[in-house]
Fold:
Amino acid sequence: MADAKPLRIGYVPEHFSTPLHFASKYFSLNATLIPFPTGTGHMITALRADEIDVGIGLTEGWVAGLGRVDSKEGGGYKIVGTYVETPLCWAISTGRDRELNDLDALKGGKVGVSRIGSGSYVMSFVLADTKGWLQTAGQAPFEVVPLQTFAKLREAINDKTADFFMWEHFTSKKYYDNGEIKRIGEIYTPWSSWEIVARDAGDERLRRMFESINKGVRYFEAHQDEAVEYISTELDYSKEDATEWLKTVRFPKDVEGVSEETVEETITVLKKAGVVGQDTMGPREMIGITGDR
Structure:
């Protein structure tokens, strides 16, 4: 296996990627790490185009991507691992000078998303469902404005291209603190927030990958000062925010495998929100490696 071709692993270059960085730096992760700052939706496209072998991204994005295709098509990837066990806090942002001060003001407005099918897209439907704004399943409760990057999303809510967008809390916080954008609410995912997917769930290189990432997670837990230093110097976070984030996140003891219950729960919510159809593929068809959690 030492001579195996490196895996091409897509990931989002945010604070959650720190154990992956440690796995690569200290534990012989045999992989080329390819950043996708535009998020999970972009990785789905890359997986289907055979540009990457593995993706580490948001649960709702992966499940929505599989749920929006015919099961006979396969979807282009399978869910094979659990990367983060804790839910994700999606902060809801608008422009600094916009007269939008609560969530009720967003009904029927323009939501900025990175891509159609991305986590930011999916969670806008989940938000609408929790607020009772979904009149017909699958009918958009907002005008959807795809904008690709976090920087373009921040720009759009200030120039009124969009009214609001949703992004992870700590990634957004720097821009609340400097006054660039305004926070008007939040919503949590009701499931574990990050999963690992692979084009080929039977790829023999995955087992070694899981072992290296597990070691990276244990190193992260034992060396939190180093984690804070990495996050605050190599990524776009302050030491204070990195330290606070560490109190909120929990990585699994073993990243290999995903529970059917997690995927089933995600499918149920996405069906209710109209993001996937009622006849979408089930969890067993989406999962490549099952694990009890």
In short: Residues 40 and 62 are 7 Å apart (CA to CA). The longest strand covers residues 181-188.
